[in-house]
Amino acid sequence: MSKWMALRSVGGEVIEQPRNERERWLVNTVATQARQAGIAMPQVAIYHAPDINAFATGARRDASLVAVSTGLLQNMSPDEAEAVIAHEISHIANGDMVP
């Protein structure tokens, strides 16, 4: 699934410029983990849903996206959210994404 289609299907919004502390934390966390995994910085998106969920998609490791739900950000501790994000980053690093 293309990044555009994935975002459209969940109503996600790419964070171009963080507007608040939560978005800043998310972008910084993804950046740190991407650097540690040796991959290019994915686009980062948030979508509004009460479910605790996240996904990674993209055609290639250097053209990827990590999206998380507002439910994940509101209901998980920072450590728990970091673990979920690390899981998504590992999908990108291993090329386990649906393009």
Automatic annotation (TrEMBL):
Main location: membrane
Keywords: Cell membrane, Hydrolase, Membrane, Metal-binding, Metalloprotease, Protease, Transmembrane, Transmembrane helix, Zinc
PANTHER family: PROTEASE HTPX
Entry's localization field: Cell inner membrane
Entry's family note: Belongs to the peptidase M48B family.
Superkingdom, taxonomy of origin: Bacteria
Listed GO biological process terms: proteolysis
GO CC terms: plasma membrane
Name by which UniProt lists this protein: Protease HtpX
Keyword Nucleotidyltransferase: no
Cofactor dependency: Zn(2+)
Membrane topology: Multi-pass membrane protein
Keyword Zinc: yes
MF-aspect GO terms: metal ion binding; metalloendopeptidase activity
Pfam families xref list: Peptidase_M48 (PF01435)
Domain Peptidase M48, first and last residues per copy: 21-98
Cofactor binding note from Swiss-Prot or TrEMBL: Binds 1 zinc ion per subunit.
